Amino acid sequence: MKKLLVLAVVSTVAFAGYRWNAASSAEDKGLAQDRVWIDHLPRGERDMINVFVLLTEHPIGAFQQTSAWKGGFEAFRYEANGGEVRAVYPQTGDREKFKVRATKCTENQMDYCLEIEGASRGVKRYYSRKGWEIDSRDRADAIVHGLY
What we know:
This protein is 28% helix and 36% strand.
């Protein structure tokens, strides 16, 4: 009887851990998309920052380096599967796979952290805040331009 009770408790704990891990992963996956990500807050109007976005309405993303006065970007089409992004850069025809992992954090006056592994563009770590959700391209532009 004791063995059966121990087995039931262990099974319940294991199942709860699995469900918690699956829920956390789902939250992280959704958190990376439809949000403006930057590598740091600009220190002035000529400070170049790196910006990253993944839009879900039309699966398009972009790596951008910009200041208030100058900037450049490269956009890509993508398919996401879990934390893996398969990107195609239409301008060059380049293709690549990279991983994104978004989590809640309290670094650099931010609410969220994003790690990118395996991308040939951009930087490896980005940050975002509550309220930086994107519901349109105009909203993304307003957030980035509002930083300066």
